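Example 3.2
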Amino acid sequence: MKRVSTFVLGLLLLSFCSTSSMAQKKEAMPVKMKAGAQKTMSWTTSSKAAREWAQKGSLHFLNAEWPQAYDYFNRASNMDPNFTEPLIFMSWMAAGQSKKDLAQRALKSATNKPEGEKLWASILDEKSTPESRREAWTKLNDMYPEDPLVASGFVRSRATLDERIAAAGEFLQKFPNAGHMHNSLGYYYMEKKDNETAKKHFEKYIELYPEGYNPYDSMGEYYLTIGDLDNAEKYYTMALEKYPFISSAQEAMAKIKMEKEKKNPEAKKE
């Protein structure tokens, strides 16, 4: 599908690394820890099962696999309605009044939580600005320097494209198995019109997260952008084989079909 947008993560985001790095981050986490007592972020919840659902949701959210992400976060929230993490992420994925309601619930749930949770939730405040959100991510990154979720949000909240690329490079030095960051870098380099470097990052994304559908969707978008319809169709087909309900891939396939028919009108008759 694409990347997690700069806006969402500038609001946020997120993010986890690959499945292995996510597990590495979370397996040592107790259900509740005092903020600032460790180098990774801990979310307060009374439910171990809710934490496990949220972990799965984070992985899919990071990889822009929204349907699965929302489903897992919703399950986590149902198990613990006062669990701030899933409320934050569902708010980012929702729209309209639902988005506002979830944001208010997240802010309220964080009121008596540790400093890190309050700071993260503050990004949802309607009065926040790009500058205040960027400052919040910088503070979180200083508080939790070994947390890939926090570090991912920090990268995507940087003000300029060059700053995001530099921060992403530093991120990968710390978390080399984070496939989603290669996805981000692929799009960053496409913005810079450096298609050769972009392609290398999309290839690495597929290597690190082969079980997901977004890596193939991103590679399909790359090929569609450079006008290689055959390879675009190949990778979008692979994405849809992984998950048949990707609207971006379905729309792209329809576009590819029309473009091919324009080039070869006889194919339409077959």
